[in-house]
Amino acid sequence: MDDAALARNLVLAWPLALVVVATAVRQARTGDVLTRAPAAFLAALWVWVTVHVVEVTTSWWTFAPSSTSLLGVPAEVSLGWALLWGALPVLAGGPLWAWVAGLAWVDLLTMRLADDLVALAPGWVAGEAILLGAGLVPALILGKATRERTWLPVRAGLQVVLFPAVFGWLVPTVALARDGLTWMSVVDHPYPMRALLLTAAVGLGVPGLAAVAELARAGGTPFPWDPPAHLVTSGPYAYVSNPMQISIAGLMTLLTAATGSLVLAGLTAFSVAFSVVLAERHERATLSARWPAHDDYRRHVRSWVPRWRPWVAAPATLWVSEACALCSATGVVLDSLAPTGLERRPAEAAPVALVRMRWQAGDPPDSDHSDGIAAFARALEHTTLPWAWLGWCMRLPVVRPWLQVVADACGLGPRPLVRTGADDRMRP
């Protein structure tokens, strides 16, 4: 074994040993290793992906050639980094600031001593700072938030970055490299084709992002060990049970078509087969055991073929003003689309004072509701698949606030209403 191979093995061995010790101590003291393990996995995955992103996009480190290298980083190094920066802090516990300070010091020290393993370019310390900020800190936050089930927007947002980074960047990058291709192959097409590819990518990506937002509204994330508080059957889930898997598989298929990569085609086929044969069965059994209503939901909603109209378990209400001509006209337009499971009522007769259109599922005070642009988008989701897609896009966390600002600027802002106290129902 040469010096470089020995160094690679040591880089993996000592973080692995620390993780084993931390696991044993944690289990002996508190017995909560199984509850911490999913958070440790997410944190480690974040670090592992970030190491490859920084290595591919910069030139601060050059690792010695190895048969185990992936995108220029030996597997032993990337896994050791992931265990040390991601899994160990979650399993061992402790204040985040102490882990940042301690691991930064250890990293700076070991990088200078690893001459047989890596060649450092001028300015490599700046690369370390970037890796600490983009890799270590988010990993610690993601691990803590997942373990404690706190900071829901943060952990959901980090997962929105993490999983597309794995399936939308890391896997395709490796596949393209195996075929002698690069990301330039994706855009190496005439302008009309590039525009078509971009349009298709947006079309395929929106359902997955909307599904994440829907899970977050219910208190959960896409990660199976960080589930929502109740069964989610709204949003994209009213049309298909696997919106995120469809988005990922669709985008990988689109990349395959754009590049002609045979390796990526094989990986895409494998991911779909894995989802259909193994993952879906396990998920269905788990969700059915957790929520008895899941069986009834799956009898109406397919896994991979979306419905044309949504399956609505419980009807919702759209409160629309009769006094506002534009609001009333909007309600009439929605009626013309024959929404499923949606009843329109006058906002003046709502049980609470309203100043915007409101979509409401359930009864106050525990009802789920959306106001303004989000309410209109929700109503579109009760119609047909194309209109629902538009509604999902409108409700995305980044899109919705801007649309609401534009609508308010155009005179569609809050309107005080004279409440009638009557509940005159309008056309469903």
From TrEMBL:
The chain crosses the membrane at residues 6-25, 37-63, 83-105, 117-141, 161-181, 193-213, 246-279. It comes from the Bacteria. One of its GO terms (molecular function) is methyltransferase activity. Keywords: Membrane, Methyltransferase, Transferase, Transmembrane, Transmembrane helix. Gene3D superfamilies: 1.20.120.1630. The keyword Transmembrane helix applies. The keyword Transmembrane applies. This is Isoprenylcysteine carboxylmethyltransferase family protein.
